[in-house]
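Running log. JK asked me to keep both predictions on one page so they can be read side by side. First protein, sequence followed by its tokens:
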Amino acid sequence: MLLTAACGTAVTVYEVDRGILREGRKITSSSETEATCAVWNHNNRILVSSFENGLISINTMASQENTSVCNLAEGSVGENSCVNDLHLSSGSRYLISGGVDCVVRIWDLKRQNLKYAFAPCNSNVHSVSFAGQSDEYIAAGCESGDLYLYHAQHGSAAGVCQELEDTSAIHSVVSSPHPFLRNKLGCVYASGALRLWDLATMSLQTSLSRLHWAPATRVVFSPIHKHLVATSGLDKRVVFTDVGLSKEINCLESPHPITAMSMHPHGQVLATGTSTGHVLLYDLRNATSPLSIFQVGLSPVKSIQFSQEVPASRRYDSESSKSSFVMPPLQTSLINLVPPPLPPPAPTTTTSTPPSPVATGIASPLEWDDLRRELQDVKTSLSDEIQMVHLEILRQHQAQQMEFMQAMSDLKQEMHQLVLENQQLRQENERLKHSF
């Protein structure tokens, strides 16, 4: 399990092993400017980082050395060059960025160039996210409290979602990871509110005002429960909300104001970054107190993100996947704490010595451990792959349904136009009959 944190002038990659952070790779800007964001690609081989001088750096994690693939945007000394947020598409082909210059951009990572630059928003862009069933939308949360929506394929504006009663800044925008809820957007505001928007209708679905006593900073959807949403704020709290019931169900207290947050893809571990440079890890199965607290810097943690969940079969395909960057997940159970049972002893007689395990074909305890681990890896791999296939089938089915509904809607409109034209022709025919 990997965790990346943007704190101070560096983006640092940490290994997480049983609640302990071990510092690994560091990525910095040549001008020693502040790091603002870092995101993993879908297979954890690429890490994209941004800085206050506008630099967007792509680094490969395949080797142990700091290897930069390319810089999409070079750093500058301009006042409006700061990049506040990044987000990768589901296949990691496209990257979106937004910042102080109020412009949302789409980058093509395959061709390593700029694909689209949308018309400027009315204020600074704090957060960006892909959304929709197939990442066909782009959402941008602004300082003005407006939520801008764009068409990713066409490079055009789709609309603006506004809450007239709350014009505070949007600090975080995230789309739901669940297949049938990809059109749902979660936003948190400087007023401490949480709001959920529906992309299909561009309407407000849920609004929870004053969920935090201070500005809210991050929002994440649970990858397990489709109605569970976690929000963090400068009031030192992580609030868990059931958006289906519009009800707060739990709360975690932090010793410091929370500036960043990430939930692991398996939904059991939560990481928060604070304004004091601390990173706190929580085991959500027993979240009465932090699992561990680490000082990663002296500046506020601006971004924190867990690596993506990779099936075990892919993790162990090559020797490089067995490097120190691949760590076991933070999971413990009573079964793992109990030593494996020893094999039954071989029968012995008074006239002969006991046969060795090798001679009789009975596995030793270490071999039993290896066999148990391999079986567990195979089981986990199959389960993950089956789940991924199932989710992909559901997503494709939903996309086909939406395309069919759109085609039916277009057909109805065309039929309606034909009926109107037919009526107009009939009226014109009657008028001509009376005239001549």
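And the second, directly underneath as requested:
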Amino acid sequence: MYSNPPPRPPGPPLFGPWHCVGVCALALGLGIFIAAVFPVGALMFLVAFLLIFCGIGCLRRF
């Protein structure tokens, strides 16, 4: 009576379970990066780059 759904094409899904985490980390990292342009400290610079790269990694991987 019911037919099987068509198979999904291979490849990563468009919105995986970690997509929201990636977007939030990317946004938070960019916000801290903008705030770190003003003389706040080098630690915020490192945290901003870490969050930006983690966000990009989550968006690409998941």
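Observation for JK regarding the second prediction: Helices lie at 19-36, 42-61.
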